[in-house]
Amino acid sequence: MRGFTLPEIIMSFLFVSMIFVMLVNLYPMSYITTRRGEYQMVADTLAQNVLEKSRGGPYEALVPGPEQTLEPIKRGEVVFTPTRQVAAVTGLDTDYCKEIVVKVTWEEKISGRREVVHRIVRSRVGP
């Protein structure tokens, strides 16, 4: 019966150590990726809600003008700030067609400032 030699023990220890280090680094990266996806989903939902409210209201209430900052929403430690801008569609009369652009911005600790932009074109239906 023969035992393990010192180089075999050292190599196996290094191999096990490398696998352990990779697994330990996997957890923080998956946490960051999960948080980033969660924040993206919250921002997308908020932008979609603002668009739906704009689409559901009267057409005359959509007045083209500068970007308006809406009420910020806080989820955990992150503040999401939505803005809405109503603009004329190039080449079309604003009596019949307007573009609504919603931006949601937030600040992440790791990757800094992020932004989501949703836009639709709303047209007047009827007389």
Description:
- It is a single chain.
- By secondary structure, the protein is an alpha+beta fold.
- It has one domain: S-adenosyl-L-methionine-dependent methyltransferases (Single Sheet), CATH 2.20.130.
- Helices cover 40% and strands 31% of the residues.
- It has 1 helix and 5 strands; from the N terminus they run αβββββ.
- Strands 1, 2, 3, 4 and 5 form a 5-stranded antiparallel beta sheet that branches.
- β4 and β5 form a beta hairpin.
- The chain is rod-shaped and about 95 Å long.
- The termini are far apart.
- The mean pLDDT is 91.
In short:
The chain is of the alpha+beta class.
Biggest sheet, in brief? 5 strands, antiparallel
CATH fold topology:
S-adenosyl-L-methionine-dependent methyltransferases
SS content category: alpha+beta
Number of strands: 5
> What is the gyration radius calculated from CA atoms?
26 Å
Tally the helices: what do you get?
1
End-to-end C-alpha gap: 97 Å
Give the arrangement of secondary structure elements.
Elements: H1 6-56, E1 68-69, E2 73-75, E3 78-88, E4 97-108, E5 112-123
Write out key terms for the chains shown.
127 residues; alpha+beta; five-stranded antiparallel beta sheet
